[in-house]
Amino acid sequence: MIKLEAKMESLGEFMEAARESAKKSGFDDATVMQIELAVEEAAVNIMKYAYPEGGGEIGMSFSSDGGGLEIVITDSGVPFDVTAKEDPDVDAPLEERGIGGLGIFFVRRFMDDVLYERRGGTNVLTLRKKTAAGKPTA
Amino acid sequence: MEISRQEKDGVIVMAIKGRLDASSATEAEKELNSLCSNDARLLLDLSGLEYISSAGLRVLLVVAKQIRHCGGKLCLCALTDSVMEVFNISGFSSIFNIAPDIDEAVEMLKG
Fold first, then answer.
1. Residue pLDDT, tens place only, A42-88
2. Which domain holds residue B67?
3. Distance from CA of A54 to the nearest CA of B (A)
4. Domain locations in chain A as residue ranges
């Protein structure tokens, strides 16, 4: 479990940990990148919005079994359910295009499971990515 | 992340290498936005870009809007597979001119 300040300076360390865990879990390079991307977007979201007063920390833990990788991201900031956000309009033309909501959209697109819970005063976001062996066969 | 600049047939070619993420986005925005002048023709060579997140996409979106505002033209080229996937999923592949390589991109911008 890594616990670091919810500041942009911590991002590199979180992403390195995500990259290493994803590689160890046996994912190919393209999937490792998807996992990194999901972790960056989730962490940056917390850095930007969870602690409006400043301060605060982000916790991240990684566990893997034969079926895939599970990443649990926690913060004790304002409640924020990423699974309840609406998807952005990805078909909008350039003039109308904003970037809001895209990060969370990536988290949902690139991970197999995204679960949000509020436990006590803590936001708990669980992200799971399955390996080919962990996916149900058709 | 590294950004290098050269000119080719009147087109400014900026090569972005490495990772365009939330930690490098501010620096990238500063470098790219300084290029917005009247009729600027800007080509972003992304052949060395290994990773892009929503923070990186935001920078490209800001540059695209500015270039359009000052009557210039922008083209991206040589996206790696992983970066292309992020563009496809976000719908960014349909709002940018994307060429397979530098030569085709330069032709596109000259025309």
1. 999 999 999 999 999 999 999 998 889 999 999 999 999 988 888 88
2. 2-110
3. 18
4. 2-134
- Answering whether pTM is above 0.90, one says yes
Tokens of A1: 């479990």
DSSP B43-109: EEE-TTEEEE-HHHHHHHHHHHHHHHHTT-EEEEE---HHHHHHHHHHTGGGTS-EESSHHHHHHHH
ipTM computed for the complex = 0.91
The neighbour count for residue A122, using CB atoms within 10 Å, is: 13
Q: Taking CB atoms and an 8 Å cutoff, what residues of chain A touch B68? A: 94
Superfamily designation of domain A2-134: Histidine kinase-like ATPase, C-terminal domain (3.30.565.10)
Whether B64 contacts chain A with CB within 8 A: yes
Contacts of A57 (CB under 8 A, 6+ apart): A3, A4, A5, A6, A75, A76
CATH number of the domain residue B79 falls in: 3.30.750.24
